């Protein structure tokens, strides 16, 4: 772990936060699939479509985040993305009818995507000498989080019952 000592403290905190965020978001993909198929009574194809729609919204959210970063700066853009994402996750967790769930997932994707441009800018600010290393490490940490988060599936919840874990759907 001697390589870890070479990085600035603020950059390490950023990497840890990104890893936790990436792992958590990837952990939610299987849970959303279970919720859509078991609690909402939809097919796996419909669940896959909603998750694809959500991921596409993240791409548009990145563009929105870059635009907002240029207009209102990084801190406000980051706060907008984090607060809107947290509110939408809460809104989704109360149980929504199918069409509203799809819209909420799209908006959640926009909010999550909005977070990334200020994060990349922050990486360049906290480690000016890092150059491309900082962005490569962010890419590595995000992919590591996705791999681990998806691999976790629902194993930590052996007695998982989706009809008891989620609120009413209609």
UniProtKB/TrEMBL annotation:
One of its GO terms (molecular function) is transmembrane transporter activity. SUPFAM superfamilies: MFS general substrate transporter. It comes from the Bacteria. Residues 10-170 form the Major facilitator superfamily (MFS) profile domain. One of its GO terms (cellular component) is plasma membrane. Keywords: Cell membrane, Membrane, Transmembrane, Transmembrane helix, Transport. It is a multi-pass membrane protein. InterPro entries: MFS (IPR011701), MFS_dom (IPR020846), MFS_trans_sf (IPR036259), MFS_Transporters (IPR050171). The chain crosses the membrane at residues 12-29, 49-69, 76-94, 100-123, 135-154. It is found in: Cell membrane. PANTHER family: MAJOR FACILITATOR SUPERFAMILY (MFS) PROFILE DOMAIN-CONTAINING PROTEIN, RESISTANCE PROTEIN MDTM, PUTATIVE-RELATED-RELATED. This is MFS family permease. It comes from Neobacillus niacini. The lineage of its organism: Bacteria, Bacillati, Bacillota, Bacilli, Bacillales.
